[in-house]
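Sequence in, structure out.
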Amino acid sequence: MRSILAVPSRQRRDEFLTAVARSRELHRHWASPPRTVEAFEAYLKRIKKPAYVGYWVRTDANELVGVININEIVRGTFLSGYLGYYAFVPHNGRGYMTEGLRTVVSQAFRELRLHRLEANIQPDNEPSRRLVQRLGFRYEGFSPRYLKVGGRWRDHERWALTAEEWLSRTNVAGEYAVPPDRGPVGVLSERVRVRSGHGA
């Protein structure tokens, strides 16, 4: 598989902040990316800590597509982390985030040796929900006022995936078989194909 991931870099700070600014409408109340130089520097410092891993997704032309982070990694008997991600205009909805997240999930289970990944998604964020569904995440439940985003406590759905579930759908070459659709009762879902749809 071609690599579309890049290590976050201070050298691309201005490009990053420009991408964030033009994507404000896309991010709405779903994500709060760094919008200032100070916030960007704090972000770089945070992802260098042992409990965080950060990736940038890029196009073949090396343009920034989006961000994927594994946050609050806990080792020991838990071996779990929380996914955070967002795309940049005009590259959203073109399959890049699906490919990038698939690579990050594979690295999390195969190289970081995590056992579980969780993605917390606001109920009205259908593109983000479809993205994790493509990769086989299960709906685990609803948490009211779970995370503070954009200055407000917001409801979230919890979606999760374990290493056993992921590895059972990958062959020796690391190719992933798309699982059957699984979604919460009352949430409209659809059968999706890898590389299709609208990556968040």
